[in-house]
Amino acid sequence: MKRGLITWHKGELPPQAFETRLAAAHKVLSDRELPALIVYSDVSRSNQGRYFSNFMPYWNRALLVIPREDKPVLLCALSPRVYPWIKSVTILEEIKPSPNLTQRVFEMAAERGWKRIGVLDEGGLPFDLYSQLHGGDLETFDVPFADVRPGPDEWELPMYARAELLTREVLAAELPHGVGLGDHEFVGRLERRYRLAGAEDLVILIANGSSPAPPAGAILRPGFGVAVALEYRGHWVRVAPGGDAEFL
Amino acid sequence: MAEHGWDVLLLYGHPWRKDFFRCLVNVNFSGPYAVAALMRSGEVTALASHPWDADLVAPALNGAATFAKDFAAGLHRFVPAGATVAVAGLELMEARFVHALRDGVGAIPVSATSQVEELRRFKSAEEVECLKRAADLADRGYQRFAEVIEPGMAEYELVADVEGFLKSNGAEDNFMLIASGGTEVTGMKPPTERRFQLGDSVTTELTPQIDGYYAQICRTLVLGEPNSQQREAFSIFSEARQAAEDLLKPGVDIADVARVQNDVFRKFGWGEYTGLKYTRVRGHNLGLHPDESPYVLEDVHYTVRKDMVVIAHPNTYLPLSGYMVYGDTLLVTENGCTALNLAERKLFVK
Lengths: 248, 350
Hints:
heterodimer, A: Creatine Amidinohydrolase, Chain A, domain 1, Creatine Amidinohydrolase, six-stranded mixed sheet, three-stranded antiparallel sheet, about 20% strand, elongated, B: alpha+beta, Creatine Amidinohydrolase, Chain A, domain 1, 2 domains, five-stranded mixed sheet, 18 strands, about 25% strand
């Protein structure tokens, strides 16, 4: 779960990065004559909302609404008590309390006169939201993520490089000391070091005579392997020294 | 299944919500998606989106686990055409997967979420053992928290240490929030770079997961000698927590478990701080998900039954102290409830 340091260092990711990404979204909306784009976000699917706003929910779900000719608005089921924190780590200036996300979308659409709307990766919406969205008068259009983000941009690549370096450095320091330790103990050591270095989220699997899997209370044997998926400020990398590259 | 006319019950999971899958196949998958299928015959099979997960699940199902990198295509083939399919977790499922099921069987599946949630509310002896182990780890995790914290340390550094401790001691996962400071603090959130100062009130809820099951502990710690307002606030929270535990037993409406907590705040003139503006819930069910229903709220009506596992926590903001938290994981017994946490019940001081 997301319990690491969630922050926004503008030296790493300048506001210009988000302005550029939003401009690309605005162009797609303009080309397709759509007044707005909605972007779904939850604990395990935060990357798209993060890309446009740096918002990452540590809990619950949210919709980022990107009007074609206005600033993005976050529709959020989290308590208004955490809005100051959200604003401190994102570009967002407006957050609307939204216990019912789709109802709030319909209200926004009515207020602004929208009859149709783009939905980023519409097939990826949770089925309850998808059904509710299709139960109203608003016409929806799928916008694939690749249409607004053809590939990593100039700000993403250094972040991925930083995340990979961090992942490899800790592994290089800890792997030589793993044999003979319990797998839980070893994972705990990695977890502590990664979180201290700023990891937001982690999945650590151990290959100890079998396919990589969560630790199971075994002693690490010579030749054991580790697969680490690490999120550093919204940027996921996966590293598995000697691992199965096809699935990394 | 027979009563509802379901031929196949699917239990869907993704990384945030593995709970429906794990209530039937208690294996900690780590890929993007997994689904377990229960046939009316009792046969159980599973489909995972990652081959490592299929390898992990297969021994639990005598090999009846397969992998499909294209999960939608895999689902399309996973259930027999024409079957009546119900899905626990349908609402969480990506729409494209529901459509793949529809195309495979010829109809949109129905939701089995509420029926399966109801089954999950009452824990077996085996499940209670897992929760006891999780509560024990929560206690030890909080002890670590209280030992390690010191002025000058950043919130995220403390969380990193506790997280490492919990993982070293067998936690599969942990849900943890934190806050620190004075009366300006209105709620908990992920850790920040803020550094602890003498006089801070530091709140946390720790929720480690053992063998799939989450137990939670909520405690507040003051760095340095607590001031009179912090002590006064804690005495109110303590009375509210005790009121909930005194009431919680089979046959009670969960709304009343919220009401008796809130009544304590009202008695002391702080009733306005029991609403949604200042707090979320006065507790919730626990199990394979750290935030299960029913929520402990005055407008949620549900009759408590034996073997439910609930946390009652009067967590809220008060002008006296800022946000404060206090609560333990409780097992509903024949005549009352018993705390699974054994950590000291006090305002911690460091």
